[in-house]
Amino acid sequence: MMMSSLLSVLSTHDIEVAETLIGVIRFLLIFVAARTLAEILVRLSLPTIVGELLAGVLIGASGLHLLLPPSAHASLNEGFINVISSLASIPAEAVPDLYFETFPSLQAVATLGLYALLFLTGLESELEELVAVGAQAFTVAMAGVILPFAFGTFGLMFLFQVDLIPAIFAGASMTATSIGITASVFGELGYLKTREGQIVIGAAVLDDILGIVILAVVVALATGGALEIAPIVKLVLAATVFVIAAIALSRTAAPGFDWLLDRLKAPGAVVVASFVILVLSCFVATAIGLEAALGAFAAGLILSSSKNNHAIQQSVLPLVSLFATIFFVLVGAGMDLSVINPLDPSSRSALIVAGFLLVVAILGKIASGWSFVIDKPTNRLVVGLGMMPRGEVGLIFLGLGTSAGLLTPSLEAAILLMVIGTTFLAPVLLRLVLKDKKPGGGNSIPDEVAADPVGLI
Amino acid sequence: MMMSSLLSVLSTHDIEVAETLIGVIRFLLIFVAARTLAEILVRLSLPTIVGELLAGVLIGASGLHLLLPPSAHASLNEGFINVISSLASIPAEAVPDLYFETFPSLQAVATLGLYALLFLTGLESELEELVAVGAQAFTVAMAGVILPFAFGTFGLMFLFQVDLIPAIFAGASMTATSIGITASVFGELGYLKTREGQIVIGAAVLDDILGIVILAVVVALATGGALEIAPIVKLVLAATVFVIAAIALSRTAAPGFDWLLDRLKAPGAVVVASFVILVLSCFVATAIGLEAALGAFAAGLILSSSKNNHAIQQSVLPLVSLFATIFFVLVGAGMDLSVINPLDPSSRSALIVAGFLLVVAILGKIASGWSFVIDKPTNRLVVGLGMMPRGEVGLIFLGLGTSAGLLTPSLEAAILLMVIGTTFLAPVLLRLVLKDKKPGGGNSIPDEVAADPVGLI
Question: What is the largest distance, in Å, between two alpha-carbon atoms of chain A?
Fold first, then answer.
């Protein structure tokens, strides 16, 4: 509090009221929109995550401008501004500033939700099965990275005369599967613990690692710096060591965790101790140059063999239900669909390039489902479709390329459409393919998990 | 993302890494410190909240400077800066800026925790009992506001020759009971559902309302403006209508909530629907000029008669265990005890004034326990001690007075010591008074709640 007179104290109080109002209205909008659409989609037998993304689109940058990430560079809804301004007695001009200033807090809560979801995914993983399908997951990840990257980059260069660097950016934006969206879809369909589910989750984790390496390489290329091998080797090494360490720890550290838990007497021990492991793992991952999200998944893996696994899941579920919803609504809210209006002639070339990228992005990942050798019955189409959603990872590439001024507006729009298309189509197609099929392939799912895979009660 | 070159993109990546590291290390510090102390205090039969406040003092502005609210105006721990700087490869000078820039996100999560705790307190309230003790709660609230205010203000003026306005500020800072701390202590001791617990919670809620009114009056006085009666009457009216409406709604709205819940099919319905009611109630409270915290408690009251009460409690508990802990650690971290070093001669006069305020603050609230008429056996000392903690509400008054330049350093220190003293002493004294006593007084507590009042499992 750095104020020099009581007048500014008074206005500080008004500002705090306005900030509180903005915060609660944003929560209200997110949950009412997301749940309304989720209820409709559940009745159409579609995963609720599609509803959450759609809710974001409806109230976000492409829709009502009520939920507007600062990166969207659009104007806030006038009605929203007027409501806040009149309720909190502050001038209307001050509302957008407060809105965007407080947005990082919402994003922080959403990130907590994403990490909680990845932690839960790790917890629900059948580690034996994940290790057993390691070779298949590796092949799927490699094929799912190489095919879209190669066809995307060369296709743009030779079919659409795009320059090398932007073509590489667009190609790279198609490589990484969004593990959050994939885990959510498989979880909700009750397919997380099947062989297909485990291959996809394993491959998506490897994709994340490959994505970090590709990002380093592409940025090095684009800045014209010498392409140094040493940092790349270091990254790959760090990632490999991290994943192997997590798998090894799940056999030795989980009993130690249980031992500690038995000795803790203060209430809330299970959820707090799990959170400490989660945060610790995120710290180690970030400190050695990997994504914190990878750390969250690894923490879940480590605790997956704890005898308190069920209690941990129960305590994480409310966090996932609340905050992962915010994350996915924010992903939808950040998408600006106005650039791909087919009635606008200037966006038609973008639509053609977008169509090309979308086809490459879909076929490249679907093809990865046929890239591996396995002697057990496995639904390869489910694996390929599971690898499809790009989500936030594709958006990060788009953001980097745009902010560096490397992409033409038409290529930007095309990449955005590719991300949106793969994100929305994957759950819908998966649902169509899996319609009326019970999870199979040698793995069984406990009834209580099948009844309520990612939700609570 | 507003960057003009890939170089700034690169450094943006480094900044993101630094921000993630700062965020996860803060979580780690908070939870490791809070849980270590909580485990020690549980073994001494003291409430864990004392451990959480102490943990904040240890790592906060009075201790290691690792958890440092921007309002503390102190320098961040050098070791912390060096660790972040070396791990994220950003210059050491940039670390404090990033630290303080990202602090509001932590505070937002802490606020969510406080609201979740108040919501849970409302849920656990026995509404019949709360209404039954309404008259007693009202008397306790009035006495607990008037006694410390009158004795504090006039005592400072006549014993210490303090001017009228600063004396009124100091007096006002002693009026409002911290409902968060009080609810947490009573919950942990298993005393939330006793007659004493309900009187204290009811009185603390009324105190919150009176606190808002007093704040408006004091600020109006201090700015020299005419003391208008209309806004004050409006506030009192709004508060009264709000509380009565919440009590009325709990009889009519809870069945409607249950009806809706039966029809919702998407997973996670219980926790999300409860959160929507919570947020909606906070919105209404804020919109009519009341504290959002009051809205959170009212939402709990409204849903307390829902047949899903137990399921709602189970889904809220993890949020409370994680995020309310952060809130209380932050309260402790914001306290700067260096101003009251008894070895420093300049702080001795502050200590004498502080001692006076502390005695008035303690006796004033304890006396309120004898202010009501009741025909059932009631432990009046428990009621008085329960009203003692001032916590964050006292700190708000302190912040307003300091920022307006109304208080001398010695009076500032004295108010701070009063807040710290009442906050720490209340749980300790309550534990001493209740030692070996089972909750009684006509109310019984369900075993599962008594075994785990605020924690989880």
Answer: 76
Query: In this structure, are B346 and B283 located in the same domain?
Result: yes
Tokens for B264, please give them: 């919702």
Write down which residue in B105, B121, B156 finishes a domain: B105
Please check whether residue A58 lies inside any domain of the structure: yes
A-chain residues near B275 (CB < 8 A): 27, 31, 322
Same domain, A270 and A338: yes
Domain count, chain A: 2
Closest C-alpha to A220, from A211, A229, A209: A229
Tens digit of pLDDT at every position of chain A (457 positions): 333 344 455 567 788 889 999 999 999 999 999 999 999 988 887 778 888 888 998 999 889 999 999 888 889 999 999 999 999 888 998 999 999 999 999 999 999 998 998 899 888 887 777 788 889 999 999 999 999 999 999 999 999 999 988 898 899 889 888 888 888 888 888 888 888 888 998 898 888 777 767 776 776 666 665 667 777 788 788 888 888 898 889 888 889 999 999 999 888 899 999 999 999 999 999 898 887 888 898 999 899 989 999 999 999 999 999 999 998 899 888 877 776 677 777 777 788 899 999 999 999 999 999 998 888 888 899 999 999 988 666 776 776 677 677 788 778 878 888 888 898 898 889 888 887 666 654 444 444 443 343 433 3
Q: What are phi and psi of A69, to 5 degrees?
A: -60, 145
Listed residues B78, B105, B132: the one ending a domain: B105
Does residue B366 lie within any of the structural domains? Answer: yes
A230: CB partners within 8 A, 6+ apart: none
**Cα–Cα dist B391/B422, whole Å:** 8
Which amino acid is located at B359 in the chain?
V
Smallest Cα distance from B34 to chain A, Å = 10
For B181, phi then psi, to 5°, come to -65, -45
- Its ipTM equals 0.85
Q: Is B132 exposed, middle or buried (0-12, 13-18, 19+ CB in 10 A)?
A: middle
Q: Which residue of A has its CA nearest to B8?
A: A404
Nearest Cβ partner of A32 from B3, B71, B276?
A: B276
Q: What is the DSSP letter of A428?
A: H
Same domain for A112 and A97: no
Distance from CA of B367 to the nearest CA of A (A): 32
Q: Answer whether A265 sits within 8 Å of B39, measured CB to CB.
A: yes
Chain B CB contacts of A405 below 8 Å? 4
Closest approach of A95 to chain B, Cα-based (Å):
15
**Which token pair is B433?**
């008074």
With CA atoms as reference, the chain B residue closest to A84 would be: B287
Q: Let me know if residue B1 belongs to a domain.
A: no
Nearest-Cα distance to chain B for A115, in Å, is 12
CB atoms within 10 A of CB A152: 26
Residues A242, A317: one domain? yes
Note whether A301 and A417 are same-domain residues: yes
- In this structure, are residues A196 and A378 in contact, taking their beta carbons and an 8 Å threshold? yes
CB pair distance less than 8 Å for A403 and B10: no
φ/ψ of B140, rounded to 5, equals: -60, -45
Domain containing residue B59: 6-105
CA–CA distances in Å: residue A158 to residues A143, A415, B57, B219: 22, 17, 64, 71
Q: What is the chain B residue with the closest CA to A292?
A: B20
Q: In A, which residues are within 8 Å of B449 by CB distance?
A: none
- Residue A70 has φ and ψ, to the nearest 5°, of -55, -30
Task: With beta carbons less than 8 A apart as the criterion, state whether A373 and A137 touch.
Answer: no
Domain assignment of residue B456, yes or no: no
Q: What CATH number is attached to the domain comprising A364? A: 1.20.1530.20
Are B359 and B379 members of one domain?
yes
Q: Are residues A341 and A379 in the same domain?
A: yes
A165 with A256, same domain? yes
